[in-house]
Each structure stands twice: as structure tokens, then as C-alpha cells.
Amino acid sequence: MAGRGARQRGFTLVELLVVLLVMALLTGLAALALPRSGQDSMQREADRLAALLDAARQQAAARGEPLAWAPGAAGYTFLQPSPTGWVPLNDAPLVARAWQWLDAGGTPPPGYLPRVNADAVRAGNVVVQASGGASGTGASTSWLVFGTEPVSPPMQVTLQGDGRVVTIASNGLAPFAVSSQR
Question: Where does 100-143 show beta strands of DSSP type E?
Fold first, then answer.
């Protein structure tokens, strides 16, 4: 029989808490390492696109010339007018970008210029539709055109795929906001 002075073996509360903390950290790292679903990448793309559309509207007003956002099957680009028509804008952050949900990744080729004359564009399993913006600019119907005024007509971009609809919209004065529905 053990005496009172004998110590029983076991884990202290501090040791158990440390083990739980290490397990939680490893679980978090494993979750970050998992590939993201198409819906997560569609939401991230919408958040990024909202910020870029705000920047394009501000830059069009600052430059005193219209700018356009053109979606395509591989990605999208921002355009500026030239004597020969619309040409890609190569000023950061308004450069050509690939859709995040496409497996190809990367960026579209230099000079990427989507020439889709339709109301909607299919990019992988996502349908991209834009509406609103300045009119009478010779732009494609699927493009958003930002005029030279700081206040623009209402604009909206809708991303629809995998049973989810993500909308990026502005009333023309407020910043672009993202909302989603299932």
C-alpha cells in the first residue's frame, strides 16, 4: 500500500491544456492546407473584384477618361480607350487576372481582351453577367464602363454557379458591396 508521501502518476491540467492547444493548431494548419472549394474561391473573387471595381471607378474619374471592365472565359481585364478602340490597361492594380475558381490559375496572356458580345460569359462552371454603367462607348454588352464622373449609373456583376449566386453591386455612389445567396 502506498503511503501518503507517494506521488500518483498522471497528467496535470496544464499538460492537458498544452496538448489540446497543439492539437487545435495542427487542425487549423491542416484545414488551411486543404484545397478550397469553388464556392470559397467564387466568394474571394467577388470580394477582390468589388475592390478593383471601386478602384476603376475612381481612376476613371481621376483620369478624365472612361475605363471598362471586360469579363471573359479565362479571366477579366480592365480597358482604356485608344484611337484604335479599347486596349488593355496595364496599371496596377487594374491588370488582367484569371478567375480564381479555374484550375489553370495564373494570369491571362498579356494583352488579354475578351471580345464577347453577349449578356453573359461562361467561365468554367460559373456564369458571369454584368449590367449597368456608362452607355454609348462602343463597348461590348458584357462589359462595365466607368464614366468620367465620380458618380456613375448603378452597376452590378453576378457570378452564378454550383447553386450559388454572388452579386457585386453599387448604386453608383456607394462602394461596391458583395452579397450571396444559395
Answer: 120-123, 126-132
For residue 58, give its domain range. Answer: 38-181
Is 86 part of a structural domain of the chain?
yes
The reply to whether the predicted model has a pTM over 0.90 is no
The reply to whether 3 falls in a domain is no
Tell whether 52 is covered by a domain.
yes
Note the helical H segments in the chain: 13-33, 38-63
What Å distances lie between residue 62 and 43, 54, 87, 151, 165, CA to CA?
A: 29, 12, 19, 12, 32
8 found inside a domain: no
**Which candidate, 70, 131, 66, 119, places its Cα nearest to that of 99?**
70
CA distance 152 to 171: 8
φ, ψ dihedrals at 129, nearest 5°: -135, 130
Q: Tell me the CATH number at 164.
A: 3.55.40.10
Number of Cβ atoms within 10 Å of the Cβ of 178: 18
Domain count across the chain: 1
Q: pLDDT by residue (tens digit) across 53-111?
A: 999 999 999 999 999 998 988 889 899 988 988 888 888 889 888 888 876 556 676 66
Distance CA 126, CA 101 (A): 9
